[in-house]
Design goal:
This protein is of the alpha/beta class. The protein is built from ten helices and five strands. Strands 3-2-1-4-5 form a five-stranded parallel sheet, with helices on both faces. The protein is elongated and about 70 Å long.
């Protein structure tokens, strides 16, 4: 039930979807008996569209998430395991084309391969089922496993978790699979903007991990004052940030996260 509710909440937490609904409502009222109200709502929707699409608000919202956890620094102690969260593979297209198709978070896969080579004794865990409610579900984990196999990573090192549909399930199912021992060191690889919610979910599941953020999408706080030159780019950036902030709040309120805004220090 939480999965379905999260998908419904996710739809309305995306600003471009909300703006589209506002504009459609205004246009609809214009065509019936309330043209004055309809015109006001439509103008509001268009102004909101321009504000969200061209202003740097999307960068500000995203930076507040992505800058929460700094880049991981090696201190001389090798990790025992590396956990990579799904969200980097377009599994439906990959299955249809019989070829690996990545999406905008492909840096997660790049980091997975780099870390697998850098730390040859570490276990590699890929956690990713399918969160698609509409199309036939194809899990990401088996596709990631095929990639690791083709690039020579020993199957004995690889653990594939293919049932999770949410970040909470990533944490819970991965902990059940790997059964981490006291004193072990585990890295968590995911997009920088997704790291606060992910760390909160793993802490709530009783699994202590170290953040290894990738997929930053900005140059840093210098982009906080940089407007977008394409409406679609600003909308896309804001959609990602607002969706993630909504997820953080929902996880905190439902007890699925350890804190409202998890930090490197507990």
């Amino acid at each position: 039930m939480f999965f379905v509710l999260s998908k419904v909440l996710g739809f309305f937490s995306v600003p471009s979807n909300a703006i589209a609904v506002i504009c459609a409502l205004g246009a609809g009222l214009l065509l019936i008996r309330w043209p004055r109200a309809g015109s006001r709502i439509l103008v509001f929707g268009v102004l909101l569209l321009l504000l969200v699409g061209y202003s740097p608000i999307g960068n500000v919202l995203l930076l507040s998430l992505s800058e929460r956890f700094p880049a991981w620094q090696f201190d001389g102690h090798d990790p025992d395991g590396i956990i990579v969260l799904g969200g980097a593979i377009d599994s439906e297209t990959s299955a249809a084309r019989h070829a690996l198709e990545t999406d905008s978070s492909a840096e997660r896969l790049i980091a997975m391969l780099e870390l697998a080579r850098r730390f040859p004794k570490a276990r590699i865990v890929f956690s990713g089922g399918s969160g698609n409610l509409i199309m036939n579900s194809v899990a990401e984990a088996p596709l990631a496993g095929q990639l690791l196999d083709r690039l020579g990573v020993a199957p004995a090192r690889v653990v594939l978790e293919d049932k999770s549909r949410t970040t909470e399930e990533n944490a819970v199912f991965t902990r059940q699979l790997v059964a981490p021992k006291p004193g072990e060191r585990w890295l968590l690889v995911t997009s920088a903007f997704h790291m606060p919610r992910s760390i909160g979910a793993f802490r709530a599941a009783g699994f202590e991990v170290e953040a290894y953020p990738v997929d930053w999408r900005t140059r840093g706080w210098a982009d906080a004052a940089m407007p977008f030159d394409k409406l679609s780019a600003g909308l896309a950036r804001t959609d990602v940030a607002v969706h993630e902030w909504t997820g953080l709040i929902a996880y905190w309120l439902s007890g699925r996260g350890s804190a409202l805004f998890p930090s490197p220090k507990r």
